[in-house]
Amino acid sequence: MDVENKQAVEQEVHTESALAEGIDLHSLEEEVYLLTGEFIEKAKLKKGQLFVVGCSTSEVLGEKIGTASSYSTAGALFRGIYRAAKESDLFLCTQCCEHLNRAIITDKEAALAHGLMPYLVNVIPKEKAGGSFSTVAYENFANPVALEKVRADGGIDIGDTFIGMHLKEVAVPLRLSKNTLGSAHLTAARVRPKFVGGSRAVYDENLL
Length: 208
What we know:
By secondary structure, the chain is of the alpha+beta class. It is 35% helix and 19% strand.
């Protein structure tokens, strides 16, 4: 590594440490674990379904999205979310940043189970091209793959990353017990089948 690149890396590490200094990563991990469990319950997700998470660690740390990516913060968030997903036998999908056209990182098992391999793309996310959260996901999934798109059964958005392009129709907002995580705005959504038939139609309440 040349001197200029080494100095740039050292500056990034210093900046991340300064921003994350006031963050209790263990508490953050537990908080997002509980919120994810709440989301899974309220979204009525079932074994084997997909849910997508978009996450800006910059926003969690109180900075503008895309400006202060934090690997350590991403690690804490991923561990909490992934633990809740595994306990419910769900497939976690993480949304990359706009530099990778918001591609999805997930495990190959999920892609095969949901017939998503035709959407396979060749890219490895990094902190500055994909984002810290998807970088951590890629490093932790057993057989990580990148996909152009998915049609998930629900999702969590940490920091206004806009996950709607990866949700099935029709998306319905979910109100969780908290609407912030760190300094980031937190939203969530479930999906439901479209209503058809108008005023005479009778609907199955179990699908709502």
